[in-house]
Amino acid sequence: MTTATTRHSDRRISPVFLGILAVAAVTGWATWTGYAQQPGVAVFLFVTSAWVVSLCLHEYAHARTALHSGDLTVGAKGYLTLNPLKYTHALLSIVLPVLFVIMGGIGLPGGAVFIERGRIQGRWRHSLISAAGPLTNVLFALVCTAPFWLHALDGVPADFRFALAFLALLQVTAAILNFLPVPGLDGYGVLEPWLSPGIKRQVEPFAPFGLLFVFALLWVPALNGAFFGMIDFILRHLGISALDQYCGYDLYRFWQDTHELCSVSR
């Protein structure tokens, strides 16, 4: 791979990211210890800030892989600082994914970094750049689910367990959606270098609407049920029960009354 050189300032971690990380740490601690008077608020802040951290790491993985593949411009663009405000569309990158989490409990692919593909040689490198982001979500999901499949939850407060289960659900949905071979998503980016120029030209006009197309399909009840059935299947095999998933989302939406079943489980 190409030896990458950037200025130190281009790689300095942004105070914005450190602030978000601090919120995740403090509210995670408050959820664990029960220090917060309103546990739902602490869970909301913990899951939301941790979700934004994962979005930053997703885009950092794209940028870092591009850097080592030959695009030395990613540093000057601020992509290596983990600052979400440096993304191509800050609103679409952060605000929209958070709104989707609040409204539907689904990990919307966020973030956007502009990679100068002309600087990169080799189809495998292009594919790896696209795959790096969702692979980060997979890794994040494994970290979140590790206490469940390692059976290491004895003594862990129920609120923290529920929050971790919901965060894992977001990571799994984000990974699966990102890996779909739909124009505009990372899954298509993995395949694109291997397609003929003619197919690329035919598909290119649909790229801006790929994500909208996917979510339109998820409004179809049968497809929605199949999608979340697959998510539930994966999480169950990682040790997270349907109750943990449900109560995590229930607790996250603190402005609603907590379901009696979740209150008993706590």
UniProtKB/TrEMBL annotation:
GO MF annotation terms: peptidase activity
The entry's keywords: Cell membrane, Hydrolase, Membrane, Metal-binding, Metalloprotease, Protease, Transmembrane, Transmembrane helix, Zinc
Membrane topology designation: Multi-pass membrane protein
Superkingdom to which the source organism belongs: Bacteria
Transmembrane spans: 12-32, 90-115, 127-150, 162-185, 205-228
Cofactor(s) needed by this chain: Zn(2+)
UniProt GO BP: proteolysis
Location of the protein in the cell: Cell membrane
Family: Belongs to the peptidase M50B family.
Name of protein: Site-2 protease family protein
Organism: Streptomyces thermoalcalitolerans
